[in-house]
Amino acid sequence: MIKFIRSFSYAVNGIKASLHKQVNLKVQLVTAACIIATGFYFRITSVEWCIVLLTIALVLCLEMVNTAIESLVNLVTTEWKPLAGKVKDIAAGAVLVASVFAIFIGFIIFFKYLSLK
Ligand SMILES: Nc1ncnc2c1ncn2[C@@H]1O[C@H](COP(=O)(O)OP(=O)(O)OP(=O)(O)O)[C@@H](O)[C@H]1O
């Protein structure tokens, strides 16, 4: 149990560290809060909530993984190496792909509510 609590606190520290390092994550958190508020406003269905929350989780988690990969690359090398750049670009690309799909999903879910208003 103590081991579990310790692992949990390390994970919370990881969240704090990525929030401290990444402006992007803060922007994404604010965006997520706005989307959740919009969900409450339009009273979206349970299935829509699941899709919205999963999409938000996907983008936030990928942003944190991207931050971890960036830090790891910086730890491995301080030199300018094409492979290091490629690794960072691929990690950033993953966040971009998820974000673009999140925009589409948001549009699909909220469009009907917006057009009904
Ligand atoms: N060691 C390196 N070797 C080669 N290219 C690198 C290296 N470090 C960074 N780059 C290139 O510069 C880009 C920006 O790197 P950086 O580490 O500043 O990432 P970032 O996304 O701007 O980080 P942050 O979000 O912390 O500002 C990378 O995506 C990569 O193309």
TrEMBL record:
The chain crosses the membrane at residues 49-69, 89-111. It is found in: Cell membrane. The keyword Transmembrane helix applies. Signal peptide: none annotated. It is a multi-pass membrane protein. Coiled coil: none annotated. Keywords: ATP-binding, Cell membrane, Kinase, Lipid biosynthesis, Lipid metabolism, Membrane, Nucleotide-binding, Phospholipid biosynthesis, Phospholipid metabolism, Transferase, Transmembrane, Transmembrane helix. The keyword Transmembrane applies. GO terms for molecular function: kinase activity. Its main location: membrane. Belongs to the bacterial diacylglycerol kinase family. PANTHER family: DIACYLGLYCEROL KINASE. This is Diacylglycerol kinase family protein. It comes from Chryseosolibacter indicus.
